């Protein structure tokens, strides 16, 4: 099936450290989306990448889409306690299907 | 614009019963997707509706069904509930255009507990 694998499952960092989560698909994606879910909340859209090799930044967050459009990463520089939550990637395939990875739960200790 | 609303927010049912969950998308959004979220499995896609038609379906048994009305509101139904159906059920709406996937706006979810 068209699965999207995401690693790591959990990450515990000290405030100020960097954090990266990776997303991989065995088949080419039409696009990839990233979402953040705070504890007790619902997923909130962060960004969508469409082009091969695309890199987008949102303040301390950097999103990359691989050249082959099969992998993506989210990097957070100098984490803050407000970054706590679960980060999901969602791969878009042909036919409108959007498959979510299982997410990376980030815990930031002050 | 009002966000995606889901009712009820919490529900407790007994094994064997059936349940209907409701979702009202953001005004103007015609695509509605349903997801099941559990701690071990993450977000699992149930189905997606667009203009009253089921356009995509995930790998769930036939006990899970849904429909969409002409005003884009959607319902999902689970019959013969099992303990394993306990989960947070999330609805998401999207503006959508043909041939592309757009950002999903999620509702707060319905927390279903099956005892």
Structural account:
The complex is a heterodimer of chains A (110) and B (115). Chain A is mostly beta strands and 110 residues long. Chain A has strands at residues 4-7, 10-14, 19-25, 31-37, 44-49, 55-58, 61-65, 71-76, 85-92, 98-100, 104-109. The radius of gyration of chain A is 13 Å and the shape is globular. Chain B has 115 residues and is mainly β. Chain B has no helices and eleven strands. In chain B, the strands form two sheets. In chain B, strands 2, 4, 5, 6, 9, 10 and 11 form a seven-stranded mixed sheet that branches. In chain B, strands 1-3-8-7 form a four-stranded antiparallel sheet, with no helix packed on it. In chain B, strand 4 (31-38) and strand 5 form a beta hairpin. Chain B is globular. At the A-B interface, strand 4, strand 5, strand 9 and strand 10 of A face strand 4, strand 5 and strand 10 of B.
Q: Which descriptors apply to this entry?
A:
heterodimer; A: 110 residues; mainly beta; six-stranded mixed beta sheet; 0% helix; B: 115 residues; 11 strands; 52% strand
Give me the secondary-structure topology.
The complex is a heterodimer of chains A (110) and B (115).
Chain A (H helix, E strand, L loop, with lengths): L3 E4 L2 E5 L4 E7 L5 E7 L6 E6 L5 E4 L2 E5 L5 E6 L8 E8 L5 E3 L3 E6 L1
Parallel strand pairs in A: 2-11
Antiparallel strand pairs in A: 1-3, 3-8, 4-5, 4-9, 6-7, 7-8, 9-10, 9-11
Chain B lengths: L4 E3 L2 E4 L5 E6 L6 E8 L3 E9 L2 E5 L6 E5 L5 E5 L8 E8 L10 E2 L3 E5 L1
Parallel strand pairs in B: 2-11
Antiparallel strand pairs in B: 1-3, 3-8, 4-5, 4-9, 5-6, 7-8, 9-10, 9-11
Topology pattern of chain B, helix = H, strand = E: EEEEEEEEEEE
Give me the secondary-structure category of chain A.
mainly beta
Task: Describe the oligomeric state of these chains in a short phrase.
Answer: heterodimer
Mean pLDDT figure of chain B: 92
Largest sheet, strands/sense/barrel of chain B = 7 strands, mixed
Question: What is the beta-strand fraction of chain B?
Answer: over 45%
Based on secondary structure, the structural category of chain B is: mainly beta
Radius of gyration of chain B: 13 Å
The whole-number mean of residue pLDDT values of chain A reads 94
Number of strands of chain A: 11
Biggest interchain interface, per-side counts:
A-B, 23 and 26 residues
- Cα Rg of chain A: 13 Å
Largest sheet of chain A: 6 strands, mixed
Distance between the termini of chain A: 40 Å
According to DSSP, the number of beta strands of chain B is 11
Helix content of chain B: under 10%
H/I helix tally of chain A: 0
Choose one word for the global shape of chain B. Answer: globular
